[in-house]
Amino acid sequence: MLTPEEIMQLVQSLIWLLAGVGVFIVGMNFMGDALEKSAGMGMKRLLERISNNRLSGVGIGAGVTAIIQSSSATSVMVIGLVNAGVMTLMQATPIIMGANIGTTITGVLVALKNDYFNMAMYLLAFAGVMMGFVQKEKVKTAGSLCSGLGLIFVGLNIMSSEQAFGNPLVENMFTEIFKTIDHPLLLILVGIIFTALIQSSSASAGVVITMVGAGVLPLSLALFIILGANIGTCVTALLASVGANANSKRVALIHFTFNVAGTLLFTAIIWLFREPVVDFLVSIFPGDDPMSLQMRVSLFHVIFNVSTTCLLLPFVKQLVDYSCAVIKDKKEEKESLSLKYVDDRLLTTPSVALIQVKKEIDYMISLVEENTRLAFVAIDKSSSEHDAQIRKNEERINFTNSALTKYLIKLSPDVDASDGKIIGSYFHVLNDLERIGDHAENFHEIGIEMIERKIAFSAQACSGITTMRNTVMQMFAISKEAFENLHKEDLPELTRLEESVDGMKKELITGHFARLAEGNCNMDASPYYPSVIVGLERVADHLINVGYSIVNPTGSQQEEN
User: Fold this and answer.
1) With the C-alpha atoms ordered 174, 178, 184, 187, is the resulting torsion angle positive or negative?
2) How many other CB atoms sit within 10 Å of the CB of residue 1?
3) What is the pLDDT of the chain when averaged over all its residues?
């Protein structure tokens, strides 16, 4: 029986231990957020290389996870991309496999710690805090990265200190606990539950590695907990798939199946050959010092994830087929409006969310361009054949404007200053595109009204409208190219065309009133002609704003300093 004093010491040690775990997780979050911000362009380039090549998919998954230090976050991001229709199941599956490899980096870092390394990390944490007081955004981000990395090792050292795992009472308590649950399946369950609670296999692996280094957890038992941790990390992805489409649920199922299959395989091997496996790990890192003990666990974590990926990578198609067989497509329901490329799950990785927002705006530009082209069919050919398509497009344009504006508002607090400027420009672009859509709808309504009243423009009037419209459609192509591919060199031509449209407006309206005075123009058509000409001129103004948004958030033709 423990004395009251020993009970108090034990409680204090457990609190100290929990504090260490807390600091460790906070450090991981700090470092992950900072890495994601600083490596945003790197992540963009990685995601742009998404293809059906399995090996490149594994590399992308490992790279992104190494950047954001969380396989769970990578899985959620992939589910968001699949849900948005940007990525197929065949592309997503290798990325999920690669994410498991990327998450082992944290374990390797944890295992490397020693007294000199710890001192360096403490100084790094302090330097990071000091850098946080600097006004420059890049320095602040670097400070967060430094302080996060430092806090990881502060947390680890708190856990392995005399007040925590170093306390004989705590050591005896864990020894008794692991004697009680010295069964592979129970140990795997411990790993699953612990990882599911803290939602990070990297963090749970770090804790297990530290326990082995402190001598409170035998290596032979730690291996099973590590296996369980790889299943526990799937909980985040499973939760993220709730409410998503069938393909997103399949991604989560593939992630779960992949990790369970690997765990079952390695459980069988270790259960049957526990001593040879332990002896092999000991032979790679001999010695009883904490670093050697820790590196054995870290090495096993790497071997498990790399081996499972190598074994199951050839069976990607079978995993996809299996997920499709388990999760059936729902019967087609009435089509509801939704964003094409954007998903709320991507908000956890702002740089990726911003890529998808741009794709959504590119799509909106295409809709607006199509409606502007179709709207003139009613005027040119006295035909209402595109009425349903124009109204459908206009409904989607209005929805996209509203939904994307709300999405950008949610995204804004989590981005740095440079991405904040981009978001500011996107707000203006959305407004300009929505206004062009309204003008297109007005052109169509003018055409429909003229059809109903059985009136038409004169040949000369139609020729002027066609010339002006063709110039505006040229502006559409240039503005779209400039926005999509950041082509600043296209902007002078865009300005020249807009000035040409301004000149046409004055010339055509002057000519229109001259024809009226000479009696060469249908009076009934007279009110519509200036409306079309002025509307086209305003469309040109909005297109200038869209094009110049790449150099100035407000769309001004002056490049921002």
Assistant:
1) negative
2) 4
3) 83
* Contact call for residues 546 and 487 (beta carbons, < 8 A): no
The alpha carbon torsion through 424, 428, 429, 433 (nearest 10 deg) reads: 150
429-479 pLDDT, tens digit each = 999 999 999 999 999 998 888 888 888 887 888 888 899 999 999 999 999
Between CA 92 and CA 51 the distance in angstroms is: 10
DSSP H helices, 39-136, are 40-48, 54-68, 71-83, 89-102, 104-111, 115-131
Interatomic CA distance for residues 192 and 241, integer angstroms: 19
Start and end residues for every CATH 1.20.58.220 domain found in the chain: 344-548
- With a CB cutoff of 8 Å and minimum separation 6, the contacts of 458 are 515, 520, 521, 522, 525
The 3-state secondary structure of 23-44, one letter per residue? HHHHHHHHHHHHHHHHCHHHHH
Q: Give CA–CA dist 472/494, Å, rounded.
A: 10
Block residue for tokens 């150099």: 551
Phi, psi (5° rounding) for residue 273? Answer: -125, 50
More confident residue, 411 or 199: 411
pLDDT tens for each residue of 368-405 = 999 999 998 888 777 778 888 999 999 999 999 999 99
Q: What does the pLDDT read at residue 333?
A: 44
- Cβ neighbourhood burial of 507 (10 Å; 0-12, 13-18, 19+): middle
| Burial class, 128, CB count within 10 angstroms (exposed 0-12 / middle 13-18 / buried 19+) | buried
The values of phi and psi at residue 553, to 5°, are: -55, -30
Contact between 189 and 196 (Cβ < 8 Å):
no
Q: Given CA atoms 323, 326, 327, 331 in this order, what sign does their dihedral have?
A: positive
Q: Which residues contact residue 33 at a Cβ distance below 8 angstroms, ignoring those fewer than 6 apart?
A: 144, 148
CATH 1.10.287.990 is right for the domain spanning 344-548? no
What pLDDT sits at residue 171? 67
Residue pair 76/255 in contact (Cβ under 8 Å)? The answer is: no
How far is C-alpha 468 from the geometric centre of its chain's CA atoms?
A: 41
Contact between 494 and 478 (Cβ < 8 Å): yes
Residues 58 and 52: their CA atoms lie apart, in Å, by 11
Asked if residue 300 has pLDDT above 90, the reply is yes
Confidence (pLDDT) at 116 = 67
